[in-house]
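Whiteboard transcription, Tuesday session. T.W. wrote the structure tokens on the left side:
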């Protein structure tokens, strides 16, 4: 899983992603200098570090390198979200909290994304459930694995406090 990019790494990668073409240190430098004072060697070091970390590939052109992004910003963002979600001790609660922070536009984009994933990866229709056996009104029935704390294999469950 990728670690989050540092502030300067992100500023450099933003340009590489936006331009979506091989870039030189000089091009990135000139664009960054519109926002901040920064040295050529600093940008060169950041791009070299990004290459060593696998974020960009580089090809020699004359006496310089041209750098190209290895993946998209969307893939980077998705990997960060997935990593954060996987680290939660309660993934469902984390999703509820995350969705609660979303704007209506973001929720609509999420709904669109879910529709695309469902269209591209349709799940098989669930098998019809067998008819339920009639029970008497006073019968409590037997406790199943979810009710008894046992797993379907008959062993003790692993969820719950102190387990």
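and on the right, the sequence the group agreed on:
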């Amino acid at each position: 899983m990728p670690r989050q990019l540092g502030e300067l790494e992100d500023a450099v990668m933003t340009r590489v992603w936006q331009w979506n073409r091989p870039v030189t240190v000089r091009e990135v430098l000139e664009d960054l200098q519109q926002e901040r004072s920064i040295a050529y060697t600093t940008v060169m070091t950041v791009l070299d570090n990004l290459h060593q970390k696998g974020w960009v590939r580089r090809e020699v052109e004359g006496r310089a390198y041209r750098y190209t992004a290895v993946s998209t910003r969307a893939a980077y963002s998705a990997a960060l979200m997935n990593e954060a979600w996987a680290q939660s001790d309660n993934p469902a609660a984390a999703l509820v909290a995350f969705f609660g922070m979303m704007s209506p536009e973001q929720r609509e984009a999420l709904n669109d994304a879910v529709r695309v994933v469902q269209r591209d990866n349709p799940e098989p229709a669930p098998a019809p459930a067998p008819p339920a056996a009639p029970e008497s009104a006073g019968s409590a029935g037997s406790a199943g694995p979810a009710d008894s704390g046992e797993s379907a294999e008959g062993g003790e469950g692993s969820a719950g406090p102190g387990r």
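Someone added at the bottom: Confidence is low (pLDDT under 50) at residues 136-163.
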